[in-house]
C-alpha cells in the first residue's frame, strides 16, 4: 500500500510533489535521496553537497534560517532540526565551515559592481536575499539572542491545545455521511462511485488520454445489490519511470485471499519503499511475474459484475494499468469534512476495532489491507450511514491527533533547548571553538562570547593575512571585512540608476512598423516570449536600436556575464508552458539527461502558475541539448539560456521607481554617482569590489575539499533607509561529485 501520508488524501499523478510553495519545484532530489541501484559498481566516496534549489519563500532567507543551517552544518540531523530552506546532504563529510562577512555591503553593491565581483558570481551556485540587518548581524546568525524561556514556551503550547473528546455531542444532520447518503441504510449500488466522481478523483477511464495503454477488466455486466465484492490492494516501488507495481492482493467476500502475487517491474528499481511496501531486493530477485501476467490473471478471476473495493483505489488501478467501471473507495465512502480523508489505519481501529499497519512490522500487509477495505464496505452496508455518523469519526480523529500532540509535548523542553542552541554551544558540545577575525573597531557580542577565539586586527589587510594562517586551524571560522557603507544621497542615486539600467536591459527595440500595424497581434507575439510590463509604439524614427548612454555602454557585456553566472549556467528559460507541462516533462524525462530541477513560478497574487518556467541541468551541454528539443516541432516552446537568478526578480521589483519632478518646480539634483564615489574616504567601491573579490578567491582556493563556504553581504540599515543583503554559498569541489540523475 502507498505511504499513509499519500493514501489518506488526493494524490497527484506520479512524479508530482505534494507540497505547495511560491515557486513550485519538481526536482530529482527525492529520487536521489531514495538511492540508486549500483549493482556491479564500486561505491563512490560520499561528499557533502547542497541541493540545487533553495526553498526560500520570496527567495529571502532570514537570519534565524541562516543560523539553522550553520548549526546543522556543525552537528547534523541527530542533534538539531534540518534547515527548512535548503538541503545539505552528507553533512558528516563536511571538513570545515568558513563564513566571509563583507560588513557595509549590500545586494545593491553586488549588482552595481557585478562585473567586478567575478569570482563570486562564477563559483557560487547558490544565492539568496537577506533582510536588512539588525544592530548586531553576527549575533543574529550565530544565535546569540534572547528567546522565550523553555518553561514559558512549554506552558504556552500546552495552553494553546484545544480540548477534544470523542463524546462530543453532534447534530447528525450536519454529518457529511448523512448529508451524502441520508440516515437510512443504502444498497450496494448506492455506494458505487459514479462516472463523474471517478473522473473527479482521477480514476483511470476508457478513452482518457493518459489511459491509452491501460487494460480493461472486461467486467461489463450489470451490477445489482447482490453483486460480488472483492477487496484490492497493491504495493509499489519507485523505478526510473516512476511508481510501478510490486505486489497485488485480491480478497473475496468471506475474507478468502484469491490472489497474492509479487510482480517484477519492467524498469530499474531506484527505491523499494520497503518501510511501506515490505518489499526488499532479496524478496523480489527471484520473481519472474510481470505486470501483463497479473493483468491476465485478474481478468480471468473477476466475474462480469464484480465490484472492486479499496482505499484510494485509483492509485491501485493506475499501478495495475487497468480500467474497472464498478468501484467502492472506502476513503470516499466514509466521507469526511472539507474534502479530507480518513486513513485506513484509523478506520480499521475506529470501525472494526482492529490494528493494522503496526509500526513493529516491516511495511504494510497487502492482503490485510485488502481484507480491511472489504470489511469496511460490508460494515457500511450492514449498519447504514446513521450508525457511522453516531460514531462521530471526526471527533475521534481529532482526539487521536491531540493525544499524539500531547505525547510530543513531553519532549518539548528538549526540543526547545535544541532550537535555542547557538552555533557556539553546538561547537562546544563537540569540543571545538569558533574563530572570529575582525577589525579592532568592530563591535559585536560575538567577540566577547565564550568558546570564541577572537583575533582583532587594525585593517582589512591584516584580517586577510591572519585568515591565511588561522582558518586551516579551526573547523568553523568567521572572517569579517569592513567597508564604509554608501552615504544616503549616493544610495538613492544608485538605486535610481540601477532601475534605469535593468529597465533598459529588459527592453526590446523592434521595427520598423507601419502606422497601420495591428498592436493587438504585435503584443500577442511578444507575449509568447514571456510577460510584458509595458509596450510603446514610436512612429517617428528611422533606426531601431537601444539608445547608447553611460548606463547602457556595458549592457551587452553584462548580458553575456549573466548568462555565465554559476547559478544561471546550465539553466534554460522556457515560455509558453501549460499547466500540463510538468506531467509531460516527467513522462518523457529520458529525453532530458542531467535534469536537476524544474522551477515553476507562481503569480504572488492569484497563486496561479505562470506561463514560463526554468529547467536546471547539471551541465551547460545538457541544457543546450534540452533547449534544442523543447524548441523543436514536438514541443513548440520558446526559450533561451537563463539570464537572471531567482532572487534577482524579487529584488528588482523592490527598487523604488524613478522619481518624477513636478512641473515648474526646480529641484537641485543630488551629486552624480561619480562625484559621490570620489567623496568617499576609503577605496572606490568599484575597485574595492574587484580587489576583495580577488583576495577572498585566494582564501577560498586555500581551503580543503568539502569546506562549506558562505559569502555574506549583510545589507545596511539607517535612519535614511535600509538595503537588503545577499548571501552566496557553496561547498568546495561539490560539483565534482553530484549524484547521478534520474534520467541518466
Give the overall form. Answer: globular
Radius of gyration: 31 Å
Oligomer: single chain
Helix amount, in percent?
A: 25-40%
Low-confidence stretches: 1-43, 146-168, 408-417, 657-683, 736-744
What does the average pLDDT come to?
76
**Main sheet: which strands, in order across?**
5-24-21-4-16-14-15
Work out the strand percent.
15-25%
**In this structure, how is the largest beta sheet organized?**
7 strands, mixed
End-to-end Cα distance:
28 Å
Output the structural class.
alpha/beta
Number of DSSP E strands: 24
Helix count, DSSP H or I runs of 4 or more residues: 28
Organism: Camelus bactrianus
Protein name: RNA exonuclease 5 isoform X2
Keywords: Exonuclease, Hydrolase, Nuclease, RNA-binding
InterPro entries: Nucleotide-bd_a/b_plait_sf (IPR012677), RBD_domain_sf (IPR035979), REX1-like_exo (IPR034922), REXO1/3/4-like (IPR047021), Ribonucl_H (IPR013520), RNaseH-like_sf (IPR012337), RNaseH_sf (IPR036397), RRM_dom (IPR000504)
